[in-house]
Amino acid sequence: MKLTLKIWRQKNSNEKGAFVRYPMDDVDPEMSILECLDVLNETLILKGVPPVAFEHDCREGICGMCGFVINGVAHGPERGTTACQLTMRHFKEGDELTLEPWRAKAFPLIKDLVVNRRAFDHIIEAGGYVSVSTGQAPDGNDILVGKEVADKSMDAAACIGCGACVAACPNAAAALFTGAKITHLSSLPQGEPERDRRALAMVAQMNAEDFGSCTNIGECTAACPKEIPLDVIAKMNRDYICGTVRTRDDLPTPVTPVLAKS
Amino acid sequence: MTLDAKIPSGPIEQAWAKHCFDMKLVNPANKRKHSLIVVGSGLAGGAAAASLGELGYNVKCFCFQDSPRRAHSIAAQGGINAAKNYPNDGESVFRLFYDTVKGGDFRAREANVYRLAQVSGKIIDQCVAQGVPFAREYGGSLSNRSFGGAQVSRTFYARGQTGQQLLLGAYQALERQVRAGSVTMIPRTEMLDLIVVDGRARGIVARDLVTGAYSVHIADAVILGTGGYSNVYYLSTNAKGSNTTAIWRAYKRGALFANPCFTQIHPTCIPVSGDYQSKLTLMSESLRNDGRIWVPKKKGDPRPPNEIPEDERDYYLERKYPSFGNLVPRDVASRNAKAMCDEGYGVGKSGLGVYLDFSESIARLGEKTVRERYGNLFDMYQRITDENPYKVPMRIYPAIHYTMGGLWVDYELQSTIPGLFVLGEANFSDHGANRLGASALMQGLSDGYFVIPYTIGNYLATNKFPKVEESNPAVQEALTEVKTKIDKLLSIKGNRTVDSFHRELGKIVWDYCGMGRTAEGLEKAIGLIRALREEYWKNVTVAGSADDLNESLEKAGRVADFFELAELMCIDARARNESCGGHFREEYQTSEGEAQRDDENYSYVAAWGYKGDNAPPELTKEPLEFHYVHPSQRSYK
Of A110, A142, A175, which closes a domain? Predict the structure, then answer.
């Protein structure tokens, strides 16, 4: 199969970037789009041209490392599929695929298709956990959790932190990511004691990181490779509002956001 | 050299508690004065960094990915074992211990395995408290399943993504400590050498993968949780970035490397589809509960599977192993699949695959039940292969999946370099020659949450730590070596890419030190590896420069280490004149084709020491003694 890859090339955040077209003569429909980039990079390296930088690791859709925008859609056209699992059979002879990095202010570009997603770590750092140190736990069956509750929690916990939701959102909001973690933990009895504090602190950090505001468009859930449901955002808002009513003055202040550092 | 494993005396049931009491403690006020380096942020490293931060130590944690949440522990599917006996089916600490020692084909250290079984229950408690959404029954209690042929249901799971959920639990605990200020997280940074001062591990040399800047980090102790080395085979189920560099650098600085040839092949992976293939995808082995494995009776039969009549199919596992059938252990299933393909019965374009057929289960149970049990796996298979496994049989082939070998550690998880501790898959300690399903997560978390927080205190409390300056000759020497190596790789400018070498190396190791090994083949492999390595250092080409994000350069350094490790694996496999677990030497098999152990001569851990680039490694043996589980011959007929 012959097709053209039109890829965003940018050496670093200080230099200007541009699209470069790479014709590919021999694309096997069975290969993933990352393997297609591997093949391209092998030829570039032999020509002495710096290969296209892109992130990837597990290549089975769970680590959350890969991801770029393919023809305007985060992770490409297949629903519920990360770039690493997107095979070329979904494209046809002669297609031109435009590959560009996640574009969001809070995700500064590092090189080509690679961006800095540390802002997500900061949001988790602000309160995306249960404060239980090693050794303090009661027996696993001491607190019962109904199957329906555990399943709902798991639906939200399936988030892989890839950033597609932010890239897909016209506002570059991180509401789906933040809402997923808040929903995962606050659905469970183990997460209940810190429910208010968690929502307030995580939302404050999310705002500090220069993500946009959520206006309920829903592109995030459509692009999400794990199909995290939109209602996690409603749950986040609910916890946030309830927390605001019961607020205390010992909340943590946000850490320095990624943008301020770079 | 003799190895002191520091195994506590007395009955095994009390060994860990007694040892914990005997170990010295660090005063709470003094803990923050001790600096610790943790390399790797997976289940072992992440759990260790979080737990040590909670105790008040001053921790720096490194990972090469953009975030600690990416570590490859995340990809584990099936579950985590624990001796809870919630199902009331006869599980106990002793049974989990017994099964693990036996499953490891009597090449693991009893005391370590017993401790693992003992703390397994606490791991589940800890993870539940962190908010890990384990599968539950309607009544609210934790759900268990039987896994990998175990006779009791001891496996806890969170859908098909248990590793992800456990890792996120550890990651969140780690981020909590980052906020608390006790852990400094340093992502996108790769450890490239270990700093040893006056015989003790005192720091690391690292490289920032974005700016290319080198940095030196000094600490009182170094903890490696850097995972296994399956990627030496190029094609494996490991993440692309998984590598041996951290443990290999430590080996070259004096840590012994134990049982490098003990590697595990997983029988149910999606077969390779072309030369461009970059990695292999695992399908959970639970599929073998309801799938039947077969090949056509006619070699190279061109017909599609559905047109091959029942009497022209060879259900070879059911034929050869009537009592276990399709549920024989991983190593047996893998070897048989390879044997069928080697004889020309393989299916698919490449001929490297066998059928895993669900048609009978679907007819018996209905498509709905099969979908409930395996729906996500069938979807994944279809996404990758574009074939519908409800209609046509899956094609599967074995792939390298886990490495039992690793740096030698004593009962306290300390390597032969004082102050260097090794956790999880990176060490060799608990799985012997073969790991049981759902035991990797258990070991990583046991080491990180419940062993290292105790044992590191003993080391810190009993030693003095004079200040090490960056100008120290040992530091400068390590730094210069790292820089020289990277400059050398960039300067070769040859005609072959790193990946092309890696692929060729992987093929050699797979062919000669994979599922079946012979003395002759290993000898040949050592020659081939040496020749290829020589060519590598003359003819590799690395694009770009050392001052920005350059994956090609990162890979070049890792592959250079894989070359050296591959040779050591072959040397170890050649020296072990027996078959055990994942190490199958074709010369040593029973008349029924099963692994033939030689307990009289090989009941030891083979720990190899580095003696220089051109000198053979030195073998030190740690004899294994079995007081509680008596070695027996496995049989699955």
Answer: A110
Binned at pLDDT 50, 70 and 90, residue B353 comes out as very high
Shortest CA distance from B69: residue in chain A:
A63
Same domain for A234 and A106, yes or no, is no
Same domain, A52 and A121: no
Amino acid letter, residue B11: P
Whole-model pTM?
0.97
Which residues in chain B touch residue A126, judged by CB atoms under 8 angstroms apart? 179
**CB of B58 within 8 A of CB of B146?**
no
Has residue B224 got a pLDDT over 60?
A: yes
Overall average pLDDT of the B531-547 stretch: 96
A108 in contact with B, Cβ within 8 Å: no
Q: What would be the CATH architecture of the domain defined by B473-612?
A: Up-down Bundle (1.20)
Indicate yes or no: CB of A63 within 8 angstroms of CB of B75.
Answer: yes
Q: What is the CATH number of the domain that holds A249?
A: 1.10.1060.10
State pLDDT tens for residues A80-119: 999 999 999 999 999 999 999 999 999 999 999 999 999 9
The yes or no reply on domain B267-399 and CATH 3.90.700.10 is yes
Measured distance CA(A117)–CA(A66) in Å, rounded = 12
- CA A102 to chain B, closest CA, distance in angstroms equals 15
pLDDT of B495 strictly over 70: yes
How far is the C-alpha of B72 from the C-alpha of B241, rounded, in Å?
Answer: 9
Would you say B223 and B48 are in contact if contact means Cβ atoms under 8 Å apart?
yes
Q: Which amino acid is at B554?
A: E
Q: CA-to-CA distance for A4 and A7, rounded, in angstroms?
A: 9
Cross-chain residue pair A137–B172, CB shorter than 8 Å: no
Contact flag A87-B273 (C-beta cutoff 8 Å): no
Q: Which residue of A has its CA nearest to B170?
A: A129
Percent of chain B predicted with pLDDT > 90: 88
Confidence grade of residue A262 (pLDDT, cut at 50, 70, 90)? low
Of A35, A128, A135, the CB nearest to B175: A128
Give how far B626 is from chain A: nearest CA, Å: 31
- Tell me if B240 and A114 make a contact (CB, 8 A cut-off): no
A83 SS3 class: helix
Last residue of a domain, one of A76, A110, A144: A110
- B54-72 pLDDT, tens digit per residue, is 999 999 999 999 999 999 9
Residues A103 and A127 placed together within one structural domain of the fold: no
